[in-house]
Amino acid sequence: MAVEEGKEPAPVSRTNQVRPLPLRLLQLFVLFLFLCIGFSVVSLYTIRHFGIESTVTAVKSNFLPCLEESNVSLGEWIKAPVDLMHSMNDEELFWRASFVPRIKNYPFQRVPKVGFMFLTKGPLPLAPLWERFFKGHQGLFSIYIHSLPSFIPNFTHDSVFHGRQIPSQVAEWGRMSMCDAERRLLANALLDINNEWFILVSESCIPLYNFSVVYDYLKNSKYSFVGSFDDLGPYGRGRYRLEMAPEVNITEWRKGAQWFEVDRKLALNIVQDTKFYRKFKEFCQPSCYVDEHYFPTMLTIEFGNSIANRSVTWVDWSRGGAHPATFGGHDITKEFLAGVLEGNCSYNERSSSICALFARKFAPSSLQPLLSLASEVFGY
């Protein structure tokens, strides 16, 4: 319709005007849409891989810390695992075991314990002797058993060995899998914050003194007991490989028995080690017998002033061969055991007649003679 000359056009109604959305508002809307889509994708992925219950738990732990943790006490953090069986692989286990308090003073009454780590293929034929050794000393020791994965223990519920088997893998003599088993034992034992000393024993080991003597000996020692010496022969430096350098030079190459005792500090460093582990795994192959060199060499280089350069486990190599002598029932006499107990060594820079706390290798047939003499000879 034409507009008459001299008249202004009629105003357009506000309700009929269309204004474009501000650009800033449109950007916020798109960002919100992307966030919604991203959250949905993450939620679906989490539920698919971990299940609804785990997802809900994770959400609670991340977004409701005050509500969920208000009842958590110190006791929950320091309580030792009741069930030693778990689903962690070695990488997860070692990472978990490597946690260490930064404040040295414990805010609770801590009674340090000895972690006894049994490295065995299967049964513990000398268990009755160990039962007598441990009797009456609950709260001062912990027990961990690494066996073949196929082994099913049958300890009674009242046995100190009941439920003490850890998730295990096959360990072969002279191979890195043996050191893996020993690190696995240490890592599981480190999960109990009260364990302060860690002793590796086998199914053929026996204690040579009563528990109180052993406990005080370890508690009062300035050093950990790891055999470590420089063998210049073919079975020592002769096993060294040039590829071990620069982490390990031939002058730093050490040899020692695998049956060690270490304190918590050294146990943590053994579990945390990656620097030396890679070298030994790659270049110390079967003829090298890695279990005789890895720990002695690594600890001598890193913590040489913390080890006594001797073991506290007695063995007899006098018969020759690749393995020490094994003792059966006919060998067990008071005279023989008195000879095992004889010693002359350095303990905290002083001469001591108590050198070995344990001995091996004792066959199952030695059990009954040992039980009959234990009270008189060993004091338990």
TrEMBL record:
Keywords, ordered alphabetically: Glycoprotein, Glycosyltransferase, Membrane, Transferase, Transmembrane, Transmembrane helix
Protein name per Swiss-Prot or TrEMBL: Uncharacterized protein LOC111481221
Membrane topology of this protein: Single-pass type II membrane protein
Domain of life: Eukaryota
Localization in the cell: Membrane
Chief place where the protein resides: membrane
PANTHER family: CORE-2/I-BRANCHING BETA-1,6-N-ACETYLGLUCOSAMINYLTRANSFERASE FAMILY PROTEIN-RELATED (PTHR31042), CORE-2_I-BRANCHING BETA-1,6-N-ACETYLGLUCOSAMINYLTRANSFERASE FAMILY PROTEIN (PTHR31042:SF8)
GO MF entries: glycosyltransferase activity
Membrane-spanning parts: 25-47
Annotated Pfam families: Branch
GO CC annotations on file: membrane
The UniProt record lists the keyword Transferase: yes
